[in-house]
Amino acid sequence: MLSLDHARTILDVVLKTGTEKGFKPLAAVVLDARGAMKAFAAQDGTSLKRGEIARGKADGALAMGLGSRAIAKMAAERPAFVAAATHAVGGSLVPVPGGVLILQGGEVVGAVGVSGDLSDNDEICAVAGIEAAGLKADTGA
């Protein structure tokens, strides 16, 4: 189970990592395995819809059972399928890195979505947060 303490640790470390690395301001969301929001924050200076983009990365990872890096590859190879899947989940699927599954004991317990900098940098922050909480990250690589 993804606890609130896990979610807070993940969120704090995501934002701290971005700041320490000099990334642009980030928005981050932590979802449990059901897709319910456990934690969200947006740093000062994020653009208007960064929270929604972060949520779409995390939602997409949960919906597809894949880190969003794998979904990005799938979108390049099979764009019609990813477009259809995006429609099937109500539009909340953003097929770029930064949506990372959270694993505990081999089971998916949630997902993190991060948006604000380059997608690869968003993913770096998500992984740092998950690992800081003592959990395993699955980026879809």
UniProtKB/TrEMBL annotation:
Annotated protein name in UniProt: Heme-binding protein
Source organism, top-level taxon: Bacteria
Gene3D superfamilies per record: Haem-degrading domain
Organism for this UniProt entry: Lichenibacterium ramalinae
InterPro entries: GlcG_carb_metab_protein, PduO/GlcC-like, PduO/GlcC-like_sf
Pfam families, per database record: HbpS-like (PF03928)
